[in-house]
Specification:
This protein has 17 helices and 2 strands. The chain is mainly alpha-helical and about 350 residues long. It has one domain. The protein starts with 10 loop residues before the first helix and ends with a helix.
Length: about 350
């Protein structure tokens, strides 16, 4: 079943980004064979011996590569929340590439697009504007997001980063060989295969679940949320509402009870002299735009309604139908970019903004 669609003109469309929306066609499925093959290969864990060392290798490669995504790709390349040397910059990029989630320029570029258009029709992976499955994994497999956006000119000047971005599969392949040399077939199955799949979906939950479930401390023009469980499995990325409130911060857990393992690792690296100038929110930022009844919430609602205004001809889809569609079959998007924020939701946002 095709999703309801509408034509939509956005400021970024005139600039050539994002490109016209396309479904996940035959060519894209061919390119997705390695991604799908890794999932199918999980059956191998039932046929290889498992021991303490294999599981330990799985945990180690998961945590190390998750930090490559969170501390490297995200907090450094996408947001420049701290400084480091050119050599260690390359090490962070290599570690991030070993997660098999494409290159640092591609990753940072699309993430910057996400923040520019969060939870609007031009957001690459909003669960509100598309579906849960699209925001979780479908957007990565589509031809719409093959190219690197022109939002990373600050990193394009480094030839070693451009090389890694082009041959992003090399570090992952090297890790697979290393796991085999260290632990044999069990090391390959658990240290690389299982770890990679867990890493995929652990990271992907931030794009999907962290805009659906959790609490909101700060008023933002999107639906980002703080989620303790997601923070645990992603080394601190689950404090997503904090992050959308103050994007350039090296720490996303703003208070002592908000566990942020990535920031702890960065502090350790700072003690070793490998990173420096870690940014943190000041007292003013910590207390600015807190969610309070009858004060900041109406202002937020007005901003969100302005950013996500309904378009003539948009179908009215309630939350029940949205969830039914999110968990329905298929990973396709229609030929024009859909906006599925219901008129009812927008009218509600506008009504409370004028109370």
């Amino acid at each position: 079943m095709e999703r309801p669609t509408t034509s939509l003109r956005t400021p970024s469309s005139s600039a050539g980004w994002p490109p016209p929306t396309q479904p996940i066609g035959f060519t894209n499925w061919l390119k997705a064979i390695p991604f799908i093959g890794l999932h199918l290969a999980l059956v191998a864990v039932f046929f290889v011996p498992v021991d303490f060392w294999a599981v330990g290798l799985c945990v180690f490669t998961y945590v190390a590569r998750m930090f490559g995504i969170t501390g490297g790709y995200h907090r450094y390349f996408a947001h420049r929340s701290y400084k480091t040397s050119r050599v260690f910059q390359f090490c962070l990029a290599w570690l991030g590439c070993s997660s098999l989630q494409k290159g640092p320029l591609w990753w940072a570029g699309h993430h910057r697009e996400h923040h520019r258009h969060s939870d609007t029709p031009t957001d690459p992976h909003s669960p509100h504007e598309t579906s849960f499955w699209w925001s979780h994994v479908g957007w990565i497999l589509s031809s719409e997001h093959v190219d690197t956006p022109n939002t990373v000119p600050d990193w394009q000047r480094y030839p070693e980063l451009r090389w890694l971005d082009r041959y992003h599969w090399v570090p992952g392949l090297c890790l697979a060989v290393l796991c085999y040399l260290v632990g044999g077939v069990s090391g390959l199955a658990w240290g690389f295969l299982v770890s990679t799949i867990l890493l995929y979906h652990g990271t992907f939950t931030i794009n999907s679940l962290s805009h659906l479930f959790g609490t909101r401390r700060y008023v933002t023009a999107d639906d980002s949320r703080n989620n303790f469980l997601l923070a645990l499995i992603t080394l601190g990325e689950g404090w997503h509402n904090n992050h959308h409130h103050y994007q350039s911060s090296a720490n996303q857990g703003f208070f002592w009870w908000e566990i942020d393992i990535s920031y702890m690792i960065l502090c350790g690296l700072r003690c070793c002299g490998l990173v420096w100038d870690l940014r943190k929110p000041g007292e003013k930022a910590l207390t600015h735009k807190l969610v309070e009844p009858n004060t900041t919430v109406p202002r937020s609602a007005e901003e969100l309604a302005a950013n996500c205004s309904a378009v003539e001809g948009v179908s009215v889809l309630g939350w029940t139908r949205r969830w039914a569609r999110a968990f329905g079959p298929g990973l396709r998007r229609s030929q024009t970019r859909p906006t599925q924020l219901s008129r009812r939701r927008t009218e509600w946002l506008m009504s409370i903004s004028h109370q």
